[in-house]
Amino acid sequence: MREIKVPVTRIEGHGLITVELNRAGKVSRARFHVTEGRGFERFCRGRTLWEMPAITARTCGICPVSHLLCSAKAGDAILAVRPPRPADKLRRLMNLGQFVQSHALSFFHLSSPDLLLGWDSEPATRNVFGLAAVNPQLALDGIRLRAFGQEIIAALGEQRVHPAWAVPGGVRSPLTPEARDRLAAKLPEAMRIATDALALYEKSIPAWADEVRSFGDFPSLFLSLVGANGAWEHHDGRIRIVDAERTVVADHLDPARYLDYIGEAVEGWSYLKFPFYREQGYPDGVYRVGPLARLNCCDHIGTPLADEALARFRATAGGKAVTSSFHYHYARLIEIVAALERIRIYFDDPDILSARVRAEAGINEREGVGVHEAPRGTLFHHYTVDEHGMIERVNLIVSTGHNNLAMNRTMTQIAHRYLDGQKITEGLLNRMEGGIRAYDPCLSCSVHAVGQMPLKVVLFGPDGELLDEVVRGA
Q: What is the Cα–Cα distance from 336 to 357, expressed in whole angstroms?
């Protein structure tokens, strides 16, 4: 057995990829390792339920809104209340702002240098600054689009990162008319940027044919929330699972009963859990979540421009599920358009200005599950409390964890396609990083790591001897 190790950068966190070769010098397996842990589930014990939204929001500086809103939903379940209608709409508005800012960060800042400058371009300039040098308008657009999403979050929660705003039972405050009007004035530019980027991506697809075929293109299940009548959903609804044919495997699953259909495996070589679909066992029950899964699972999005884009997206797979993880980027851009269209609807809704935004209650249940769609995928917060609301147990399943099996399979596929010989070439390194980056993983959320873990690629031979090692981002 021979093994290659590859560092990965330009993701939220750092990781390690190892590639193992057999005696014939061919790739036998590739693994994506997450090698640090800190355990939010453990140190939240003993804190109060009302602290949990603010505490879990600190899991990550990129995803605080996702954890904030999901934690508040778990609190709703323990209080046994349904937030007032304005509060539900305001939470949705903040989550849509999070979709815009997070997807913009992923596409424009982290992935566009690979997509638009080329996988074999000079590493020193294959970054957002290099992108700005050759396409300053696109780079500036990315900054402005992300800023728009962040402004929505700040207008509701008074700050862009770690807003202490959603609480069990609702939210602390509505949007002000002045903030709504200011944001509404910026919406047309945000939509122009999103549709331009979507058009650029669709025009460029033929040039990426090889990457589309080799960056995680395999049959799997897809899991997401869907709303009434199968509509695209990001904050409520029921769980649907479809296969590569887009045949519904399971539908109307109660998110609070996730343990009935999702298992969690662990491996000794990574701190990241390996969730799987129980019906198919481990590791055969591999499924994907996030933008690609949401577009494969839903019947429609429900807004005009996004539904038109969804039809084009599905045409690339003949109406079946789009199975290439490379097209996470495509799905991400469509979701930005969908989010902006829904934001426009909320700006016209007087409920977002209502002061009736919180239901008051005490501890009425000892256990609660919050589930919603973070930009990267389905997020679960599961709490058990005592009669005073002190946390006794926490279980978190985050988007990156759901995709763990798929990311590992993607690494093996890319290594098979691009590894030539026993050396880690720049082209292989870039493509393995790009394969991971397509999922937009957040290792801080997934393993709660402290500090930095540089991503490495290491190549081992059939007897375990080190053949090559490359470290990037140390």
A: 26
In this prediction, residues 447-466 reach a mean pLDDT of 59
Rounded distance between C-alpha atoms, residue 387 and residue 366, angstroms: 7
Which strand (E) or helix (H) includes residue 285? none
Rounded Cα distance between 452 and 11, Å, is: 12
Residue 256: phi and psi, rounded to 5, are -70, -15
Q: Is 442 annotated as a binding residue?
A: yes
Cα 420 from Cα 412, distance rounded (Å):
14
Answer with the residue of higher pLDDT: 312 or 418: 312
Number of C-beta neighbours around residue 266 at 10 A: 10
Q: Taking the CA atoms of the chain, what radius of gyration do you get in angstroms?
A: 22
CA angle, 244 then 249 then 253, to 5°:
130
CA neighbor of 93 nearest in space, from 39, 41, 149, 22? 149
Q: How many Cβ atoms are within 10 Å of 367's Cβ, its own excluded? A: 14
Q: Known binder of ligand: residue 233? A: no
- In the DSSP assignment, the letter for residue 221 is E
Q: Give CA 291 to chain center in angstroms.
A: 7
Percent of the chain with pLDDT over 90: 67
Q: Is 396 annotated as a binding residue?
A: yes
H or E element at residue 208: none
Residue 32 CA: distances (Å) to CA of 35, 250, 274: 10, 29, 12
C-alpha 98/C-alpha 209 separation (Å) is: 30
297 labelled as ligand-binding? no
Closest CA to 186 of 147, 156, 142: 147
Q: Determine if residue 41 is labeled as part of a ligand binding site.
A: yes
Three-class SS state of 25: coil
Task: Tell which wins on pLDDT, 176 or 459.
Answer: 176
What is the pLDDT confidence band of residue 311, given thresholds at 50, 70 and 90? very high
- 66 residue type, one letter: S
Strand, helix or coil at 63? coil
Angstrom distance (rounded) from CA 173 to CA 150: 17
For the whole model, what pTM was predicted? 0.91
